[in-house]
Amino acid sequence: MATVLCVLYDDPKQPNSTAKRASLPDITQYPDGQSLPCPKNIDFVPGDLLGHLGGGLGLKSFLAEQNHTFIVTADKDGEDSEFERALPDADIVISQPFWPAYLDARRLDKAKKLGLIITAGIGSDHIDITHALRKNITITEVTYSNSISVAEHAVMLMLSLVRNYLPSHQTVLDGGWNIADCVQQSYDIEGMTIGSLGAGRIGLAVMKRLQGFDVKLHYTDKHRLPKAVEQALNLTYHANLNQMAPLCDILTINVPLHPETKHLINKEFIQTLKKGTYIVNTARAQICDEKAIVDACNTGHLAGYAGDVWYPQPAPIDHPWRYMKNHGMTPHIAGTSLSAQARYAAGTREILECWFDNRPIRESYLIGANGQLKGAGARAYTVENA
What secondary structure does DSSP assign to 203-214, as a single string? Predict the structure, then answer.
């Protein structure tokens, strides 16, 4: 029997079910035609809160019935954390990108029994992928499960920044009504040039959702989209980011984190952006240089920065992105809507069922297996740069 070590975020401090929807929309496939997760069964109601300790990703009954040991914790950081203490006995580790169990080389070496890592969601940069592959550990994630969730969040953040929504809402909460305070940094998004760094599942979904706003859409990606897609969305392709950047009113970041993208958005790059550009980052925090973002927001070179990704996670109380000017930061929530949780919980169970039954795991869920990058991982990473 296996020991399954699962890291989830804390239970809510203020449970609120008064406005809960009765059901979720019926979606049967992703935009690329791939079917949604299809486990043999689920032990939860879609729309329930699942990503917290009490939810257990809906896996408790399933694992108990098969006599597997299921350890669920939110205590994940430090050598004396519950996660670290349990790691030597773990056969399987599950965590979410929003509350990641960081698996560096030291921790992977400590996990002598570890055979499978599951990211309940998408994004495996919390794992030392190269080292995990050397140890022949299978790495998986629930590909596409929350891509649309993140894309919707990115568009929301753009509109919130450009229309100065958050300060205006705060005016209402404070009992105020000064219209000039609210609109002195409020603009229309119509006609703006929006550039996407990345045109994978999320980047493409962001651009599709922006099309109806009558904006000019540009993108750069190492994998150019088919001509038919470019024409349908009226996209302008750029061979590199430096070519696209000076044109942008808004830059949206939609690429994975690896050494080639770490601190790509730095002080020197930001200076190439025109004054008053907005940056929206729902990818990974370390793609941006933390101090460069703070300085650019505080001086006004950037009109605003918004995102839901931080480093480390959870972000400490003194993280400078909490206090810089003109920001629209949220905790890492974009990909963990209740709609997304239903999909990635089901996908996690599908992966576990395949693993326990010795059946092939869906190719698109694989990041790496048998010492090599596979599936989604082969597109997003390289072994040398993972």
Answer: HHHHHHHHGGG-
Query: According to the 3-state scheme, what is the secondary structure of 72-136?
Result: EECCCCCCCCHHHHHHHHCCEEEEECCECCCECHHHHHHCCCCCEEEECCCCCCCECHHHHHHCC
8 Å CB contact between 242 and 221: no
Q: pLDDT tens digit string along 74-127?
A: 999 999 999 999 999 999 999 999 999 999 999 999 999 999 999 999 999 999
HSE-CB at 123 with a 13 A cutoff on CA atoms is: 29
CA 305, CA 158: separation in Å to the nearest integer? 9
CB atoms under 10 Å from CB of 383, counted, come to 15
For the annotated catalytic residues, the residue numbers are 146, 284, 313, 332
Positions of CATH 3.40.50.720 in the chain: 3-145+336-374, 147-322
Order across the sheet with 92-95: list the strands: 69-73, 3-7, 92-95, 116-119, 138-141, 366-369, 372-373
CATH H-level superfamily of 3-145+336-374: NAD(P)-binding Rossmann-like Domain (3.40.50.720)
Task: Identify the CA nearest to 121 among candidates 142, 147, 139.
Answer: 142
CA dihedral 377, 382, 384, 386 (to 10 degrees): -40
Distance CA 345, CA 42 (A): 9
Distance between CA atoms of residues 42 and 39, nearest Å: 7
Structure-token pair, residue 11: 């239970």
* H or E stretch at 341: helix 338-357
Q: What is the pLDDT of residues 205-261, one digit of tens each?
A: 999 999 999 999 999 999 999 999 999 999 999 999 999 999 999 999 999 998 899
Angle, in degrees to the nearest 10, between helices 165-173 and 147-162? 70
